[in-house]
Design a protein that fits this description.
- The protein is mainly β and about 190 residues long.
- It is built from three helices and 13 strands.
- The strands form four sheets. Strands 2, 3, 4, 5, 6 and 7 form a six-stranded mixed sheet that branches. Strands 8-11-12 form a three-stranded mixed sheet.
- It starts with a strand and ends in an 8-residue tail after the last strand.
């Protein structure tokens, strides 16, 4: 399970993003696991409000999903093909800097890979999208060789294949943490 934690010696920059409105009137979501019918406006504008400056993290996965360009390049080179990337400008209103270091990303295809009989969880809304796991067990048969995907039962969870983990570590990207599924809480 891929996790990006704040550095111990610095404060992370806090990002603000206003989702664009789709033709349906709904706001764009970056965790639908579906390819966008219409691309977002380019470049996507993200801001760091005054008083919120800090280190730009390698990965953000909240209102908008962002990752560093270097991480995106490692994923592509390692064979990840189910992620759509979009140009982003991160405008730091305090420092007046415009960063072109990150890209928005949309992971296409969530996989229902949790083995619920071996997991500990709470699912008040049902067994998909927002399951709260205390202990997660992945059924390798359901993964079917996928390298990088959102867990359909809990779309906040990004599952990475060992090959992708190794490629990220070989690229000396040291700001990400990889947790075994049974240690991931989400």
């Amino acid at each position: 399970m891929l996790v990006c934690q704040s550095p111990f010696d610095a404060e992370p920059a806090l990002l603000t993003y206003q989702p664009d409105e789709l033709a349906s009137g709904a706001l764009r979501t970056w965790k639908s696991c579906k390819r966008f019918a219409d691309a977002p406006p380019a470049p996507i504008e993200v801001t760091v409000d005054e008083g919120e400056s800090g280190v730009l993290l390698e990965l953000y996965d909240a209102t908008i999903a962002l990752m560093s360009r270097r991480l995106a390049e490692v994923l592509k080179a390692a064979g990840v093909s189910n992620v759509d990337f979009y140009d982003v400008v991160v405008d730091d209103l305090e420092t007046k800097q415009k960063h072109l270091t990150h890209m928005a990303f949309n992971i296409v295809g969530g996989i229902a890979a949790a083995d619920l009989s071996k997991s500990t969880f709470s699912a008040p809304d049902g067994p998909m999208i927002s399951v709260d796991f205390d202990v997660l067990s992945i059924d390798d048969q359901r993964v079917r060789g996928a390298l990088f995907f959102r867990l359909a039962e809990s779309i906040n969870g990004i599952v990475v294949h060992e090959r992708i983990k190794n490629a990220i570590e070989a690229a000396n990207i040291e700001t990400l943490t990889f947790l075994p599924p049974e240690q991931w809480v989400g």
